[in-house]
Amino acid sequence: MAETSKAAPTTVHPNGATSTWSNSNIKLHQGFFDRANRASFPLHLKGRKRDVLFYKGMVFLSMVGLAISFGGLYKMANGTISKKGTT
């Protein structure tokens, strides 16, 4: 069987399974995420302080999302959202 493309080299794992996801791909993506994290945060915040800020922001956003979804469920349960199209 001839190789058609060299884009993703096939790696053979010790148990014999083959994978097209190579270590170089993982390293490339890791570098991309590092750059994205550095670019999206204030540059004077380094290391742990920035991580804590990031997690606080994530927790805050998830709480807002939960509040919105539970508010919608509460309104539906009480029938304050008019069910258009249902008979």
From TrEMBL:
Q: Does the keyword Ribonucleoprotein apply?
A: no
**Which domain of life does the UniProt lineage start with?**
Eukaryota
Recorded family membership = Belongs to the cytochrome c oxidase VIIa family.
What GO terms fall under cellular component here? Answer: mitochondrial inner membrane; respiratory chain complex IV
Q: Keywords for this entry? A: Membrane, Mitochondrion, Mitochondrion inner membrane, Transmembrane, Transmembrane helix
Q: Which SUPFAM superfamilies match?
A: Mitochondrial cytochrome c oxidase subunit VIIa
Where does this protein reside within or beyond the cell?
Mitochondrion inner membrane
Task: State where it is primarily located.
Answer: mitochondrion
What is the protein name for this chain? Uncharacterized protein
Which residue ranges does UniProt annotate as crossing the membrane?
53-74
Segments of skewed composition (Polar residues): 12-23
- Region annotated Disordered sits at 1-23
